[in-house]
Write a structure and sequence with these properties.
This is SLAP domain-containing protein. It is a single chain. The protein is of the alpha/beta class. The protein has one domain. The protein is built from two helices and seven strands, in the order βααββββββ. The strands form two sheets. It has a four-stranded mixed sheet, covered by helices on one side. Strands 5-4-7 form a three-stranded mixed sheet, with no helix packed on it. β4 and β5 (about 80-85) form a beta hairpin.
Length: about 120
């Protein structure tokens, strides 16, 4: 059975309303998705550096641990690619677990390489 996990820093800092949104999204997505690893869009924002902050639920429906290391991810908004960047997660997502995470798309991690994962908004 899929479980929702909040990385300790998230668990301490997340606002109750955001936790509720994430939990709701988790329950909806786990009814629809069952296999593989998926990055499900939650929300986006821009920071003071004008970087795109894309928050997702990483769904690992596999039995094995999921590592994201130097992996290209694309972000699409209204059907058009708006960002493409390389990421590594400082933690892992255990099997049958979903975890919220924010990817920061900036000039420093941007790339033209083909993406391994896609985030759709």
């Amino acid at each position: 059975m899929q479980k929702l996990y909040f990385e300790p820093a998230w668990d301490k800092a997340i606002a109750p309303i955001d936790r509720e949104k994430i939990t709701h999204h988790f329950h909806q997505q786990t009814k629809q998705l069952q296999v593989g690893v998926h990055l499900s869009f939650l929300w986006n924002a821009r920071n003071h550096k004008d970087e795109q902050l894309i928050t997702v639920l990483i769904h690992n429906f596999e039995e094995t641990i999921f590592h994201l290391d130097n992996t290209v991810i694309s972000y699409y908004e209204q059907g058009e690619k708006t960002a493409n960047a390389t990421f590594s997660l400082p933690c892992e997502v255990t099997g049958n677990t979903s975890m919220p995470w924010t990817f920061i798309f900036s000039e420093t991690n941007g790339t033209n390489a083909d993406s391994r994962y896609t985030i759709w908004n």
